[in-house]
Amino acid sequence: MLTVKVSLLNIRSRHTKSPGIPLGIAILGGVLKRDGHTIQLVDPLNLEQDEIVRKIVTFGPDLIGISCMTLNFSVAVETMQQLRRQVPPDVIFCAGGLHPTVMPEDALGKLGVDFIIVGEGEIPLAHACRVLQRGQPITPHLPTIPGAAYRDAEGNLVTNPAEVLANLDSLPNPAWKDLDMELYLRPPGFIRGSIFNRVGVVMYSRGCPYLCTYCSSAAMFHRRARFHSTEYMVAKIRRLRTDYHIDAYYFTDETFGLKRSRLLHLCAGLKTVGLPWGCSTRVNLLDEATLHVMRDAGCIHIDVGVESGSQRVRDVLQRGQRQEIFKEIFSICHRLKIRAFAQVMVGCPGETREEVAETIEMLQALRPTYTQVSIFTPLPGTTAFEEYRTQLEPIAEYVARLNDFDIANTTKPLVNLSAMTDQEILESRARILRSMFYNNYINLLTWRHIVFLGKTLAASFFYPRLTWRAIGCAIRERRPEYFIYQLIFNYVSIYNPKQQTRFSLGPFARNADTTQ
To answer: What is the pTM of this model?
Structure first.
C-alpha cells in the first residue's frame, strides 16, 4: 500500500477574522490519520494566500481537498487557480462544504476540481484515499465513491447517492495536533459575552428536523438528527481540557438538545466535567426543569433565534413558535442567571416598518443579554432561495455577488423582499440595535470584564501607533471589530508574549510589526 499525502484547506471569508477552530477539516483529518494517511491541515487564519499555496506545494500532496461556503466561494476559486498553476498535474483536487453541496455544477466548473463531495465528507474522502493508496487512478473509480459529484465522459453531471454516517461515535478524535491550536485557544476566549481564558468547541449532534426557510442544514443533513453518546462527548471534552487546558467550551450544534432524554443524560455527564459551556437551541425545546438541569451541568449561555417580533413574519420563516413561549423561556433564563442571546433579522419577506416596531417591542419585553441583527438574505440550499427564485434572477449574477458578500456588515441589502426600501431596512437594523444598546453593553460590565478591559487599555499604551491605526480603520470601514481585535492583540502581546505575532489584526495591520 502506498502512503497518501492529503492537504485539507479551510477557506475563510475576506470579511471576518474570527478565530474559530476549523472543526470540519479537523474531523476529516482525524479520519484520514486513523486510516494511515499523512495529512496537512491548512487554515488561512493568519496567512496570506501566497503563504497558503507555498505551504501546500512544499508538503507535496497527492490529494488537495478544500471546504468552502457560498459567502467565501470567490476566495476558494482564487486559491484553487493559484494551486493548480504550482502543483504537479497529477495531483487530485476535490471540494466539499455547503456551496459545493448545493451547487455542485457551479463548483465543479469554477473550481476546476476532479470531483465534489456532496454532504458529509468522512465516508467519500476515506473511500477516495483508499483508491489512491492502492496506486489506482481516481477517475475510473469516481462512480464507486458515495456522495461524489463529477462529470462523466460525455460531460454530464453525475451525483452518486450519499452514504450517511449512522454512528457518530465511530469518528476518531479530530486531528487537533495538526492545527496550531494556540491560534484558536490563546487568551482571551469568549462564549459570546463571557470572557474566559481558552474556549474549545465541540459538536454533539448533526442535523436538524425543523423547517426554517432561511437555513441550509437540510441540504447537508436531510433533516435527520444523529447524536454522539454521552460517554464519547465527555471523553472528548476531558481530552481538550487535559491536552489544551480549556476552561470553557461551546456546542456548535445547529439545534442543541433535540431529544430531551438524551439532553438530560448528557448533562449528567457534563456535570462531572465541571466546566462552563454554551449552546444554540430553540425555546420550544426548553422548560424550567430542563434549564435547571442545564445550568447545574455548567450551561451559562444560550443562543436563541427570535428572528422577528411579528407572528406573521415568523410564520413566513416557518419558525413555528408563539411569542408567549419566548417570554417564558427568557424569563426563566434571567432568573437562573443563564445568558440568553437573541438573533433577529430585518428585511424579511413582506416585512413592514410596523413589524419592525413589533420586533423592538418584543425584544424590550424579552430583555436578552445580547441582540444580534442581520439582514434577510436567501442563500443557496435554503427553502427561501427556491421560493423567491424569480425575485433573485438572474440567479448566476445573484450567486456571484453572494460569493464575496459581507453578510454581517453589509451597508446595502443584496436583495430586498420586504415592504420597505433598502434605506428603511438599514434604518430598521440601526433602530433595533439602538433599542438594545443598554442590554448589549451594560450587561457586559461584570467585574471580570471590567478588569479585562482595564488590562487591554493598559496594554494599548505600549502599542499606540497600532491602536490608533485600528481606530482609524474601524471608523473608515465601519468595522468596530478591527479596534476590538487590536485591543485583544495588545492584551495577548503584553500578558502572553509568546503569542504576540500570531494574532490576526485584519487588513489594516498587513505588514505591521510590534515596534513603535
So the answer is: 0.87
